[in-house]
Amino acid sequence: MHTNIKDLKTNDSFTDFYFLKNYTLGNKKNGDAFFRVELSDNTGTCNGICWENPDSFDVNVKSIGTIVKVKGVMNEYNGSSQMRVFNIRNARPEDAEFYDTGDIVSCAPIDKDEFKQAVESMLGSIADDEYRQVAQTIYNEIEADFLTIPAGKSVHHSFRNGLLMHTTNMMKLSLCIAEQYENVIDRDLLLTATFLHDVAKIQEFELSNLELVSDYSCEGQLLGHLYMGAVKVRDACLKLGVDDHKRLMLEHLILSHHGEPENGAVVMPKCAEAEALHIIDLLDSRLEIFSEEYEALEVGQFSQKKNWALDRKIYRNK
């Protein structure tokens, strides 16, 4: 039986398989090398430290994004749990019978089929024929990858089925906003662009054999998913003969959904639907960050460190 990270208490010893999220080298005061690791399974994440010579193990920075076997004990450091690692090695083919990947690799806490049906139902509710055709055409093209890949490498929804979860949540929010602000929001434009806003992450990411983001593709690093997404939408619109203005609006919403140029937006949102999409994206991504931080916190507790994405400590109220 797998030893879940969330169940490990101080002084608990363990030997099991975990996912290596990060690996960094350091030096002791005497100059000797040591290394830190960040390990995870589908119940949580924990930092670890090994004071032994890094050259004694086959695990290194190239092992990030793979499964490793770890022997250690759970300690406490500065009020937070920390693994003291005594031994660590890369998982081998013959180890496969001793672990279940589903116990180790994080997956979205959703019913995949239910969320898939929700997306398809919302796409079917788009009344504008041209917007619906664009969305449906691209959905048919990317369906398998869309339902599986993470929505990010580390910041939010960085687990399997993460893009499906993130997009579905956002589409539901877009419907609420469109209904509340129907005097300024084109429902079909917002809903279509919400579905399309991150589809080019499929091109932007390189995935490991565990279906997690291991790196960014060359195309992803040079162009980014906003530009690539706008190109994908433009190509689909031109092929389908979509009205030029509708095509322009879809492109604008995709290119501006990060809000500010310093956050990666090509242009700032210049219409109500674009502003709404930016806010919806920000809301869902940030609340997911809180949700993931809460997993390590008790009610009434602050996080020990600042969340680097939000640049603040997190307090769990509920």
UniProtKB/TrEMBL annotation:
GO terms for biological process: rRNA 3'-end processing. Keywords: Hydrolase. It comes from the Bacteria. GO terms for molecular function: hydrolase activity. It holds the Pfam family HD. The keyword Nuclease does not apply. The keyword Iron does not apply. Residues 159-295 form the HD/PDEase domain. SUPFAM superfamilies: HD-domain/PDEase-like, Nucleic acid-binding proteins. CDD domains: HDc (cd00077). InterPro entries: HD/PDEase_dom, HD_domain, NA-bd_OB-fold, YhaM_exoribonuc/phosphodiest. PANTHER family: 3'-5' EXORIBONUCLEASE YHAM. This is HD domain-containing protein.
